[in-house]
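Hi R.,

Here's the chain you asked about this morning:
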Amino acid sequence: MLSPVFKPFVEQSPVTVMARAMIER
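And here is the predicted structure, written out as C-alpha coordinates:
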Protein backbone atom coordinates (compact mmCIF):
# COMPACT_ATOMS: atom_id res chain seq x y z
CA MET A 1 0.00 0.00 0.00
CA LEU A 2 3.05 2.23 0.44
CA SER A 3 3.48 4.06 -2.84
CA PRO A 4 6.79 5.51 -4.09
CA VAL A 5 5.41 8.95 -3.32
CA PHE A 6 4.87 7.91 0.30
CA LYS A 7 8.48 6.69 0.75
CA PRO A 8 9.83 10.24 1.17
CA PHE A 9 6.96 11.03 3.53
CA VAL A 10 7.87 8.12 5.80
CA GLU A 11 11.42 9.46 6.08
CA GLN A 12 10.10 12.89 7.00
CA SER A 13 7.44 11.79 9.49
CA PRO A 14 5.76 8.38 9.78
CA VAL A 15 2.86 10.03 11.57
CA THR A 16 1.89 11.95 8.44
CA VAL A 17 1.87 8.75 6.43
CA MET A 18 -0.50 7.08 8.89
CA ALA A 19 -2.87 10.04 8.84
CA ARG A 20 -2.81 10.14 5.04
CA ALA A 21 -3.43 6.38 4.81
CA MET A 22 -6.54 6.82 6.97
CA ILE A 23 -7.84 9.59 4.71
CA GLU A 24 -7.10 7.57 1.57
CA ARG A 25 -8.82 4.49 3.04
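One quick note: The chain has a mean pLDDT of 70.

Cheers,
M.
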